[in-house]
Design a protein that fits this description.
Structural class: alpha/beta
Strand content: 15-25%
Low-confidence stretches: none
CATH architecture of the largest domain: Alpha-Beta Complex
CATH topology of the largest domain: L-2-Hydroxyisocaproate Dehydrogenase, Chain A, domain 2
Number of strands: 14
Oligomer: single chain
């Protein structure tokens, strides 16, 4: 049975669950865990009333950590809302959340995939790995999968084509130090420099980096995009797709979690994909690694 446990059922968690319910997938059961059980029961009823209109046969329930025992995937969206354009400012409070959550998960027999969507994303994914008993391939974060989707949308909007025709990655931190690997970007296997000027690329990269803050400024939070990124990664795992997505994964050499393209399948991260970057891009990646490492060191002390 393909059971998904969602820890943290705020806007992101519930939007993700709704996406699972209404899109074709291999999910059999969704378990919701949060503090407010009364609200969750309301959410459960509301979702169950949609099942007649869907093509899935999913059971939705309010549960507890004992439900983690036989879960295929645990998705953690719990955390305090993003407070500013610096995701790292929310780190200390979220670190406390994660220590408590992982202690409860570790008391179960869970041996599936742990998928993280709390900010600061790369740091929280690292902490989840360190506080868990799982190998690193079974712990991953959404990383820059959403940032890359945003970039594709903005490029497509600029050029008047479908975002699905854009092949470009945002790499590094899911945050201020992220960067676009322009040297590897292409449209129909043609160098993206044939379509965009340096000025356009600079503007598009900045627009992508600030996308979340523009949304937050207007509506208070973001949840549709990240929920769909979670849903896409979930399907890749359950269907053993071995698809390549830029997700936050463990870099042994630097002892950090950072976003690079990875092959994703039933066991989580099957392989990291090496990209031969230009020198300036390598420098940006090194800077991003340093930013994440510094943030980790500010809250995590190895035992």
């Amino acid at each position: 049975m393909n059971k998904i446990v969602v820890i943290g059922c705020g806007k992101v968690g519930m939007t993700y669950i709704y996406a699972l319910v209404n899109q074709m997938n291999n999910v059999d059961e969704i378990v919701m865990i949060d503090i407010d059980k009364e609200k969750l029961e309301g959410e459960r009823l509301d979702l169950c009333h949609t099942l007649q209109f869907t093509q899935n046969n999913i059971t939705v329930k309010v549960g507890d950590y004992e439900d983690c025992n036989d879960a295929k995937i645990i998705v953690i969206t719990a955390g305090i809302p993003q407070s500013s354009n610096d995701r790292l400012k929310d780190l200390k409070a979220n670190n406390v959340f994660y220590q408590e959550i992982m202690e409860k998960i570790n008391k179960t027999n869970f041996d599936g995939i742990l998928l993280i969507a709390s900010n600061p994303l790369d740091v929280m994914t690292y902490l989840a790995y360190r506080y868990s008993t799982l190998p690193p391939n079974q712990v991953l974060g959404t990383g820059t999968s959403l940032d890359s989707a945003r970039l594709s949308y903005y490029i497509a909007e600029e050029l008047g084509i479908s975002p699905k025709s854009i092949h470009a990655y945002v790499l590094g931190e899911h945050g201020a130090s992220q960067f676009v690997a322009w040297s590897k970007a292409n449209i129909a296997q043609q160098d993206i420099n044939r379509f965009l000027t340096d000025k356009q690329k600079e503007e598009l990269e900045e627009k992508t980096r600030n996308a979340a803050y523009e949304i937050i400024k207007r509506k208070g939070s973001t949840y549709y995009g990240i929920a769909m990124a979670l849903q896409r990664i979930t399907n890749a795992i359950l269907k053993d797709e071995e698809i390549i997505l830029p997700v936050s994964n463990y870099d042994r050499d630097n002892d950090v979690y950072i976003s690079t393209p990875c092959i994703i399948g039933k066991n989580g991260i099957k392989n990291r994909i090496f990209m031969e970057l230009e020198k300036k891009e390598e420098e940006k990646l090194s800077h991003s690694i340093a930013v994440i490492k510094n943030a980790i060191q500010s809250v995590y002390q190895p035992k």
